[in-house]
Amino acid sequence: MGMVEAQKKHSLKISKRNRSHILLILPYITGFAVFIIVPIAVAIYLSFTNFDTVNTPKWIGLSNFINLISQDSVFMQYVLPNTLKFVLIAGPVGYFLGFILAWMLAQIPKAPRTILALIIYSPSMVAGSAMNVIWKTIFSGDATGIVNYILIKLNWIAQPIQFLQSPDYLLWLSIGITIWSSMGIGFLAMLAGVLNVDSEIYEAAYIDGIKTRFQEIIHVTIPSMKPQMLFGAVMAVTSTFNAGSIGVDLSGANPTPRYAAQMIVNHIEDYGFIRYEMGYATAIAVVLLIMVYLTSKFVFKILEEKKTFVRSAEAKK
Questions:
Q1: CA 113 – CA 110 distance, rounded (Å)
Q2: CA diameter of the chain
Q3: pLDDT value at position 251?
Q4: Is the Cβ–Cβ distance between 127 and 181 less than 8 Å?
Q5: What phi, psi does 196 have (nearest 5°)?
Q6: What is the Cα–Cα distance from 30 to 45, expressed in whole angstroms?
Q7: For residues 284 and 68, what is the distance between their CA atoms, to the nearest angstrom?
Q8: Structure pTM?
Q9: Does residue 267 contact residue 79 with C-beta atoms inside 8 Å?
């Protein structure tokens, strides 16, 4: 009987401990369900409906997705190619530049490193204000714009260039500004990852045969900070897919002039908040969600393979 009572008391303690654990994570689970799961579920449902934000949603099945692929020529000819070009250039460049800057800052003393890190990080905090105050002034389409003023003074051009309205420049300006403002949370995470690599690992690596800084980065630094690298990659993917408002902010119009910098995010805003075709807009949003998910999975796979390669190379040594 004593053994049975002891087992009952032990099971009661475990159940109480489990209940306390559940209570601790309940606020997070509730917030995640309310702000993530429920909105995604509602968006997926609305993507199969005809909804104008006023009348009751009407179920139309896959019509929105079929129309997006077969009838929305703007999406297929401009929006999708612009988004892919934007993501494939701004994402990787910003990601690798963030890692390189983080590694370089880790090589200098703490005081200048802190100051430079704040300077590099600050554009990500003031990107919206800088868009109107700095970049529109620099690339203004009249003779008072800084770039136009310099080019005219140098006699390189006779008339001001409409940088913010020209299809030849708007997308590339959007990409450049996105890279400029991409040193955000992912950059700080990678800087913390580089600084937290144990110095003894570097010493052991040099004893094992590593001779150059490049080998040090490939075989020691990157494998030792994989969580930060993954976090930075996810932030780069999500931020570039959601950074489409830059072209609209620069040009002041949605759609952008001749759809030069029209992204999926702008297309969603156009149909959802200008035309009030919310069902079609949510279908585009679901497509964007799928693209972000697949891209994130691809990035994770690349980094996983990189880690396996590095381990096998070190094992051979």
A1: 5
A2: 100
A3: 86
A4: yes
A5: -95, 0
A6: 21
A7: 8
A8: 0.81
A9: yes
